[in-house]
Amino acid sequence: MHELSLAQALVDRIVDAAEHECALRVERVVVLIGVYSGVERDAFEFAFPFAAEGTLAEGAELVIETSAADAVCGNCRADFKASGIGIRCPECGSDIFTLQGGREFLIRSIDLEIGES
After folding, report:
1. Mind listing the pLDDT tens digit for each residue in 64-107?
2. I want to staple 34 with a disulfide (CB 3.0 to 4.6 A). Which of 17, 74, 93, 104 is the partner?
3. 30 phi, psi to nearest 5 deg
4. Residue 52 domain-assigned?
5. Residues 56, 19: contact at Cβ < 8 Å?
6. What's the CA angle centered on 46, arms 45 and 47, to 5 degrees?
7. CATH number assigned to the domain comprising residue 7
8. Range 29-35 average pLDDT
9. Which strands make up the sheet holding 23-34, listed edge to edge?
């Protein structure tokens, strides 16, 4: 399962950040997943608790935000929102375009519980 390896990589990154900050635990993590990232949201959401088990991220809330994809037509240079498959420019009907986003898989924020010193 591709999403399990992504969840494990995410947990590794957030646990490293938590340890660097001497956190007691990870409370919440917000990730941004682009519509064309190739990540299946439901499978990733399902895999996250398994990847976090036994780490500082166990029990952390996972918030997934989805980023849309903008596109630029290679024919008429029109800007438009891309979605689905079979993308065509709404202005000229061309299927030649460049995606401007929508492939992201990013950590937006990590909320940590920090112990008092």
Report:
1. 999 889 999 999 999 999 988 889 999 999 999 999 989 999 99
2. 104
3. -115, 125
4. yes
5. yes
6. 95
7. 3.30.2320.50
8. 96
9. 61-67, 23-34, 105-114
Rounded-to-integer distance, Cα 71 and Cα 89, Å: 9
Q: Strands, DSSP E only, in the chain?
A: 23-34, 61-67, 69-73, 79-82, 97-100, 105-114
- Residue 64: its pLDDT value, please? 97
* Sheet (strand 69-73) strand order: 79-82, 69-73, 97-100
Q: Does the residue 41 lie in any domain?
A: yes
Prediction pTM value: 0.84
Residue linked to tokens 């500082």: 56
Closest listed residue to residue 97, CA positions, set 67, 65, 63, 70: 70
- State what percent of residues in the chain have pLDDT above 70: 98
Domain count for the chain, please give it: 1
Kindly tell me if the per-residue pLDDT of 1 is higher than 70: no
105: tokens are 């898989």
Token pair in block for residue 115: 């112990």
